[in-house]
Amino acid sequence: MDEAFDGLDPLMRFKIRQMISDEVATNKTIVIISSHNLQELSDICDSVVILDKNTIQMNYSQEEFLNSYHKYRIAFASDIDPKVFTNIETLRISGKSRIFTLRLKEIGQK
User: Fold this and answer.
1) Any bridge partners for residue 92, and if so which?
2) d(CA 38, CA 35)
3) Average pLDDT over the chain, rounded to an integer
4) SS3 of 52, please?
5) Which of 15, 44, 46, 69 is least surrounded by CB atoms within 10 angstroms?
6) Residue among 44, 34, 46 at smallest CA distance from 13
7) What is the largest CA-CA distance in the chain?
């Protein structure tokens, strides 16, 4: 399923998550869901696989994945150039102007 919950209202999101959970519990079905919203999948997924250019970059249990990075939202008083973050080892940087979100690997992780 690709972005299975996109465009759905909260009630339908809940119903679809419940339907997937019921199917897995009842029939031991394996479901693969592609999504950028990992928070939304946290209630129904057992594991997380991160792909980049058709190559598996990470393969963790959900708990291992959630403990492997930290998310920080940073707000500055004025606009800054995102290049200030180039020396920081991040998994992802998003944002522009004054507000940025950084996902950093846990200290000691490779």
Assistant:
1) 103
2) 7
3) 81
4) strand
5) 46
6) 44
7) 54
